[in-house]
Amino acid sequence: MFSSHKELLKSLDSTKLVGLVPTMGSLHNGHLSLIKKAVSENEQVVVTIYVNPTQFNDINDLKKYPRNLESDIHKLRNYKNIFIYSPTDKDLYQEVVSKNYDLDNLDKILEGKFRPGHFSGVATIVEKMFDIFNPDNAYFGEKDFQQLSIIKTMVKKLGIKVNVISCETIREADGLAMSSRNEHMTKGERLIAGKINKFLIKAKELYKNKKIDKIPVSMIDEINNLKNCKLEYFEIDNLSKYSSSLMDEGDRIFIACWVGKTRIIDNITLK
Ligand code: AMP
Fold it and tell me: Which ligand 1 atom sits closest to the C-alpha of 142?
C-alpha cells in the first residue's frame, strides 16, 4: 500500500499496460468487479482508495463516510499486480479545492441539482489521478451512470489519452445496487431499500408496454409512502442529448431517494 504517489510511481513499469480503478474504499463486490476486469485487461492495476473531500457537498456525509482501509487491503491480498494508493489530502492537493470544468451542463441535472459542486469535485480528483498515473484504461461503474458520462465528457474535452471502460452494476440478491453507504442502514431500512430496484423494473415494463416518457405520479407517491422513504428524483432521461462527447446509449431511468439517513442512487437502461 502506498500513501505517496511518488513512491508508487517508482514501482510502476511505464512500458506495461496500466489500469486505474478509482474508489473511495469500503470495498464491496461492485468495486471488486471493476478490479477483476482491470486485472484481466492490464499488466498493472492501480486501485485508489481515497475519500475525496471536494466531491462532498455535505460535511456530515464526508465525516460519516465509511472508512475500512485494513479490511480493504485484506480483500485485495490475492490479486496479482495490484498497487493500492491510499493518499493523504496533502499528497494530492496543495489546497483542497475543485477546478471548474465545462461538462456540457451534465453536472447541472439529476445528481447535480441535489449535490451542487459534487461533479466538479469528482472531475478534479479523477483528472488528478489520470495526470499522476497516466493509465491506459480506467474503470467506472454504471451504478453511477451520470458520473461515468461526466468522466467520458471531461476526457474528450481535455483530450486525455485513456480508455474509459464502463462496468455493469453489481446488485444484492434483492436487487439493491451495492454501495458503501448501504452499511449505514438499519435492518428495517435495508428491507425498504430492497424495493427501490423493483420500482425501476416496474417503470421499465411500463415504458416498454405503454411508451411512457415520464414516470407516473402514482409510482412517485408509492415510493414516498414507503416507511422512511423520501424521493429526490425518479426520471427518464438520455444523457447523450446534453453532450456531443457521449455516444447515444438510449434512455435510462434514474432514481435518488433517502431511506432514513442513507441516500440511495440507482439507474437502469431502457433498452
Ligand atoms: P465509490 O467508491 O462509491 O466512489 O465507487 C468507486 C467505483 O466503483 C465507481 O466507478 C462506482 O461507479 C463503482 N461502483 C460502486 N458501486 C458499484 C456497483 N454496485 N456496481 C458496479 N460498480 C460500482
Answer: 12
